[in-house]
Design goal:
This protein is mainly beta. The chain has one helix spanning 2-17; strands spanning 24-27, 40-42, 52-53, 74-78, 84-93, 96-102, 114-120, 126-130, 140-148, 154-163, 168-177. The strands form two sheets. Strands 1, 3, 4, 6, 9 and 11 form a six-stranded antiparallel sheet that branches. Strands 2-5-10-7-8 form a five-stranded antiparallel sheet, with no helix packed on it. Residues 64, 66 line the site of one 2-acetamido-2-deoxy-beta-D-glucopyranose (NAG).
């Protein structure tokens, strides 16, 4: 009797302790393969939209696709006349990481400073800034622009937005959530 109780409580203990944490990826161009959700880019379409992907031939910053997630990225240069540009990611999970491709010296007159506010649900915005290293021409891949853990395992919305009076370059490669 005692040993049955022991085994039962051991079983309950194990099933309560082993919670499997899995990571899923949201790609800038292919979205979340599990939920089918795509990132939402704003403004959504040309000519208003500043967003381009890796097929942009005329873009000044051309990151090496070999270094990107799934050979894609989505990037835009913000100018104050745009007032607001953003990416919205929806996911259900307990943690999230967002990976940017940051630029450094891409030549004179090319905007390479990165500025983006990360607003998770109703939390206050968290500003990410990358100041270009003018001694280098290469890009920084897999750059963690935002991370947050300790979330409840419920639906979350992450808004990545750039507003205000400064020019900025934002390049979104992928996000991971747990
Ligand atoms: C999930 O991804 C993050 C960011 O890359 C990593 O730090 C973490 O160890 C991963 N967790 C699992 C369970 O794979
Ligand atoms: C990349 O952008 C081009 C031009 O806007 C579009 O036709 C194409 O579907 C995009 N590709 C991906 C993978 O998002
Ligand atoms: C990407 O990788 C391929 C295959 O290894 C190589 O041939 C190509 O030169 C690389 N491209 C760049 C821009 O490094
Ligand atoms: C920017 O646009 C997004 C998407 O429409 C919106 O959710 C956000 O509130 C806007 N931010 C500002 C400061 O206008
Ligand atoms: C980030 O958010 C703050 C507070 O709303 C705002 O003052 C600032 O202009 C924003 N910065 C960018 C780059 O969007």
């Amino acid at each position: 009797m005692h040993s049955r109780l022991f085994r039962l409580s051991l079983l309950l203990f194990i099933s309560h302790t082993i919670a499997v944490v899995l990571n899923r990826t949201i790609d800038d161009g292919y979205g979340d393969p599990v939920t089918g959700k795509m990132p939402i880019y704003f403004p959504p379409s040309k000519p208003e939209s500043p967003w381009n992907n890796q097929t942009c031939g005329g873009c000044a910053i051309q990151p090496n696709l070999n270094m990107t997630h799934r050979r894609t990225y989505t990037a835009a240069t913000y100018h104050p006349f745009l007032q607001n540009m953003s990416i919205t990611l929806d996911f259900t999970g307990i943690a999230v990481w967002v990976f940017f491709i940051n630029a450094n010296n891409a030549g004179i007159a090319v905007t390479t400073m990165t500025l983006a506010n990360f607003t998770l649900d109703d939390q206050p915005p968290h500003l990410f800034q990358h100041v270009p290293d003018m001694t280098r021409t290469d890009n920084d891949f897999d750059a963690v622009a935002y991370q947050q853990d300790g979330l409840t395992n419920t639906p979350h919305r992450l808004l990545i937005s750039t507003t205000g009076d400064s020019d900025a370059y934002v390049n979104f490669d992928f996000a991971i959530y747990s």
